[in-house]
Design a protein that fits this description.
D-Maltodextrin-Binding Protein, domain 2; five-stranded mixed sheet; alpha/beta; flat; Alpha-Beta Plaits; single chain; 8 helices
């Protein structure tokens, strides 16, 4: 049996990836001590690794597909194909300094810069004309200033940790999120290409479903025209006559952020028995 080799990330971004796989129908049994978890699809072979290592391993062909942060694709300069930006765990890659150094011209002296990102940090510092000593960190970068570093280049989700350590952002380098990526050569294999296409479709269907809900309602005949005209939907509403003959049962898929204003409006216009429920997948 042919198999597609997939690698998923350890750590912070693991949970969202595992949830996506499970919702798409690829059931994973995760054990913190096991690096090759069981998966329900016999055509998939899974390994768990640090996200920092994933882009280059996929480029080299050790694995066919995987999930990692865009920041590590940039940092490792991995030549891979990005299939989907999943938008999970969004962060900004930032440069920050202690608030006590604000207003000082740090380009006039040699500074110590701490970061997990070697290439990203050096590229920024060289472009900006800093004279620096680079200090590689392995987590908890924000604790280095002010005693051990003048600047950090790190990822920040909410900015809370920066605030807690009295750090001020002086530049945002780029934004990062979790990406689904593939080895370039793997798409030359027709079986693997089709398998990846199917997985991609299922992942996208889950992501689309997460931002939509189903609304069902009953609409009296005399109210039907005005209400149907204002209904947002993906293509057209599903309409069926009620058994009593007095109106119609209508079903629509709408974006979640439209619901708070839409339901009161529908009620005001005469819709009744309005139901809202979640969707598992949306395949267009």
């Amino acid at each position: 049996m042919q198999k597609l080799k997939m690698v998923i990330p350890k750590g912070r971004i693991c949970d969202n990836v595992v949830n996506l796989l499970n919702e798409a129908g690829f059931k994973l049994k995760i054990d913190e001590r096991v690096y090759r978890p069981a998966i329900s699809d016999p055509e998939l072979e899974v390994k768990i690794m640090k996200p920092q290592n994933i882009p280059k391993l996929i480029e080299l062909g050790s694995h066919d597909i995987g999930f990692t942060g865009y920041d590590w694709i940039v940092e490792t300069e991995a030549d891979v194909i990005e299939l989907i930006d999943l938008k999970f765990d969004p962060v900004r890659i930032i440069a920050a300094i202690p608030k006590a150094l604000l207003g000082q011209n740090l380009r006039q002296r040699r500074i110590v810069v701490a970061s997990e990102y070697d290439r990203i940090a050096r590229s920024f510092l060289d472009t900006e004309g800093y004279d620096y000593v680079f200090l590689r960190t392995y987590g908890a970068t924000e604790v280095f200033p002010p005693d051990d570093a003048d600047m950090i280049i790190d990822n920040s989700a909410t900015g809370r940790s920066l605030k807690d350590h009295s750090l001020e952002v002086i530049a945002t380098l780029f934004e990062s999120s979790t990406r689904f990526i593939a080895n370039k050569r793997v798409l030359e294999d027709s079986w693997k290409k089709e398998k990846i296409r199917e997985m991609n479709m299922l992942f996208q269907s889950v992501l689309d479903a997460r931002c939509r809900v189903i609304l069902e309602m009953n609409i009296p005949k005399e109210k039907f025209g005005p209400i149907v005209k204002i209904l947002p939907c993906m293509q057209a509403p599903t309409v069926a006559p009620l058994h009593s003959g007095g109106g119609y049962a209508v079903k629509i898929a709408v974006k979640k952020d439209e619901v708070p204003k839409l339901i009161p409006l529908l009620k005001k216009l005469g819709a009744t028995d309005i139901l809202e429920y979640d969707i598992r997948k949306v395949v267009i």
